[in-house]
Amino acid sequence: MNTLNKQLNDKVRVLKDPSYCINEVSGVNGILAGLYRKILAHMGINPGRFDILLDRFISINRKSSSNRVVRMLTRGNLNRELFKPAMSFKVFMKGLKILGVKKVKFLVECEFDYNRNYISDIVVDLGNDDMDLLDDDEEEKEQ
Fold it and tell me: 84: closest CA among 2, 5, 140, 6?
């Protein structure tokens, strides 16, 4: 099976599975992949809806590029990154922007011995145009 078909099959498999394959994530970066899949599940995102959101994201973020090849490579790279069993924080943030998230609040609750707990949070404005999540060399990456 070629790489493009595998990427599409991974996406379709994850988005059509009732559990969104949350149990297939792995490693430390699997935490973010699992959280992203839970968000997809809560939103009820299916393959068709995801493609619409992805096309909108690419057209907004690649508006300066009318090159179909650049857009196609960007689409393939994002499909590959977002449906792996692990993802980086940057990929997670791209995924949120694709879904149309404008603000996200990260909350970490730490539990220690002796009933000591700490909660820290931070709000990130994803509507900020200064947050460029697509690398300039995105279109040059191999699929």
Answer: 6
* Residue 119 β-bridge partners: 109
Helix pair angle (68-82, 47-61), 10° resolution: 130
Q: Tell me the per-residue pLDDT of 56-91, one tens digit each, with 9 for 90 and over.
A: 999 887 665 667 888 888 899 999 999 999 999 999
Contact 121, 61 (CB under 8 A): no
Where helices occur in 3-108 by DSSP H, the ranges are: 3-16, 30-43, 47-61, 68-82, 89-98
Residue 67 tokens, joined: 């090159």
Bridge-partner residues for 104, per DSSP? 124
> How far apart (Å, rounded) are the C-alpha atoms in residues 36 and 41?
9
The 3-state DSSP composition of the chain as helix, strand, coil percent (nearest 5) reads 50, 15, 35
Q: How far is CA 40 from the centre of its chain?
A: 9
- Of 53-57, 103-107, 124-128, 130-134, the poorest mean pLDDT is in 130-134
